[in-house]
Here is the input.
Amino acid sequence: MTASSRILHPGLRQKIMSADAAAALISDGDNVGMSGFTGAGYPKAVPAALARHIERANQGGNTFRIGVWTGASTAPELDGALAQVGGIEMRLPYQSDPTCRTRINAGQMDYIDIHLSHVAQFVWFGFLGKLNVAVVEVAGVLEDGRLIPSSSVGNNKTWLDQADKVILEVNSWQPAALEGMHDVYYGTQRPPLRKPIPMVAPGDRIGEPYLHVDPAKVVAVVETQAPDRNTAFTPPDEASNRIAEHILDFLAHEVKQGRLPAELLPLQSGVGNIANAVLSGLNQGPFENLTGYTEVLQDGMLEMLKSGKMTMASATALSLSGEGMKEFLGNLDFYRQRIVLRPQEISNHPEIIRRLGIISMNGMIEADIYGNVNSTHIMGTRIMNGIGGSGDFARNAYLSMFMTPSTAKGGAISCIVPMASPVDHTEHDVQILVTEQGLSDLRGLAPRQRARRVIERCAHPDFRPALLDYVERAEAEGRAGRAGLHTPHLLQEALSWHTRFERTGSMRA
Ligand code: COA
Here is the structure.
């Protein structure tokens, strides 16, 4: 099927043009809202054409730069291409592109790292300035101009509403049968007009399957036939499998204690291989009739839907490997009954996360002995990706877990440190830490108790003595009346593990 046969609105058919012609409608200094969430549903042609356009302009001595706002991370064809030519002035709200990362850390590009549930409302509130252009991939256009969303919904509803000009990419690679899988809720308002969001179960449909756009605002329609990024997952390593085992044991224990129902509560699982390993573990495990209320649906959750362990999953994006995508496309009618894709303002909405009682499981870079978590920075100053939805879930979840291998870089780095730098999730939002060494359940523990539990259960044995020594000396300072004993620290030393790594390439003394 060609893209043209998916553009049924006569007025929008007349606006079909090349990606180059569409990119020329974007001006220096524009803020551009692009579709795309974790490598799914991003525009495939206009950003690359825009990058070429910017490169030519900048060779002539101009400085053509734009603001790039998205759902979350995209792909080399978007973030990579635009960053490569120095075309991004400001990026938000989440990225994971190596070229972007390098430029941000080199101070050549600004980046605002925002909770994913906040982005849409910040734009409606006018907190981020004017959105000039939206570039949104869709799977098709109906005769009346409504749009069939593609493999992610992200912030597309907001981009289409708020932008002055809209460029649509109609991608015929996206399965036509995606139609009907989405649920776009148009009931959100600005305060003081807000009403409760009427969702009480992960599979509830509260909106409609289509996105709306004012056809008069559409300045270009570009046809594409190009695949999503489809990142491959590496098979789970031993550390990931151990982490998964600890989590499964813990969940079984919680069911036994009557703190969780037998079918658990809706699962949220972050990005990456550890998250995928946990889901594989759950797929082999004893729990039945599970549900998912998550941001990104990865292969692990697809397998659980396939096996019947999971009955329903809600997300804002499908982020599948090539194999996962093949499975999905081959059985679309099956998955259409079991997957709902929503705007990220809903998939990550604190009200719904709190109401449904989510079990939240996210990766982290490091945690400190008191349970403060750093999800975003390497050695205090260099951004890795961003906070993504981890804060939306962690603060509002029924159970909030963070997981990491206990060491990084061949054992030179301890992922349990005296003080996290910086802190994305404070100790108040972190209930459970998991490494391959063990699981620390921090619920109901005061800071000094938390420190001992984290060191005993989660730190690598090579780093345990130094961490214990740190806590004991900090407590001695407190007992000597030179510091507080609520959260004992040696402030001169608290970040010395990080500075030692910067100096010597290792946190080991
Ligand atoms: N210090 C320095 N580097 C560290 C580190 C630490 N404490 N811990 C991990 N790293 C490095 C790893 O060595 C690896 O480096 P490499 O890319 O050069 O190999 C990199 O960070 C990624 O680590 P990895 O163990 O592969 O983790 P991951 O893929 O599970 O990602 C996060 C971990 C924290 C980066 C990732 O989960 C993330 O971006 N989280 C924030 C957003 C989020 O939680 N989203 C989901 C919410 S819905």
About this structure: Residues 418 and 493 are 8 Å apart (CA to CA). The mean pLDDT is 96.
